[in-house]
């Protein structure tokens, strides 16, 4: 029986040290984000922002992506910053033009997905940012179009900066680059799928996967490398 790593059913490629390191990274990242917001609000007091939280809830979800799955296309700097800010702008706009709360909530999230998709900044916590702009209460409504930038934009910028610094020590690339780890060699083989074949296969499946085409290409190359090594050991 094949013994799988404890986190294999949850996240392919995950290891326990990676998850522990992600826990520490998220803790540090959110704490630094809150501290930066506190410092900014202290230096630049504003009545419209006084009652807003230092850190908005969507940043907790963003931290999971940045620190636990930094290779995800959804966790890259532009989706984290652009996705949250753009979605919040959508949410504020909907909140000001649609007085019906249930309808506004649905429209905000739906239109945020559309806006993120068109701007190539799809980021799941963006949906929460749009929803927060609608259901956040009087303080968020009063802040208006300041809300997407303070605190959301500031939070996202600091969180990304924390991720950039933290992953210099984690062993993972961030922003992610599809390159093999040190000491691993990609074999030259005709059995490795052509990138266009990968695109066509993904189109055939009709699903969106949280992995880039370049990472799939690298993965197939590494699979061929290990398969070749296994075939050689079997023949020996």
From TrEMBL:
Domain HPP transmembrane region as annotated: residue spans: 16-175
The organism of origin for this protein: Mesorhizobium liriopis
Listed name of the protein: HPP family protein
Transmembrane stretches, start-end: 20-41, 47-71, 78-97, 103-119, 126-143, 149-167
Domain of life: Bacteria
Pfam family, one: TM_HPP
Keywords, alphabetical: Membrane, Transmembrane, Transmembrane helix
Signal sequence segment: none
């Amino acid at each position: 029986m094949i013994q799988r790593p404890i986190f294999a059913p949850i996240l392919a490629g995950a290891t326990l040290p990676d998850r522990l390191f992600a826990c520490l990274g998220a803790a540090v990242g959110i704490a630094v984000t809150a501290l930066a917001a506190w410092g900014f609000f202290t230096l630049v007091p504003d009545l419209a922002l006084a009652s807003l939280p230092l850190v908005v809830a969507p940043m907790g979800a963003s931290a999971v992506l940045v620190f636990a799955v930094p290779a995800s296309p959804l966790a890259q700097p532009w989706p984290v910053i652009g996705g949250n800010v753009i979605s919040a702008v959508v949410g504020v706009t909907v909140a000001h033009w649609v007085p019906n709360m249930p309808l506004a909530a649905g429209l905000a999230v739906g239109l945020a997905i559309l806006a993120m998709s068109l701007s190539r900044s799809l980021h799941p916590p963006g949906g929460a940012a749009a929803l927060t702009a609608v259901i956040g209460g009087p303080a968020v409504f009063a802040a208006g179009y300041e809300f997407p930038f303070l605190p959301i934009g500031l939070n996202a910028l600091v969180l990304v900066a924390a991720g950039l610094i933290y992953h210099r020590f984690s062993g993972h690339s961030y922003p992610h680059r599809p390159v093999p780890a040190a000491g691993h060699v990609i074999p030259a083989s005709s059995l490795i799928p052509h990138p266009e074949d990968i695109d066509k296969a993904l189109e055939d499946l009709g699903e969106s996967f949280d992995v880039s085409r370049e990472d799939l290409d690298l993965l197939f190359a590494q699979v061929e490398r290990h398969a070749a090594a296994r075939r050689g050991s079997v023949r020996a």
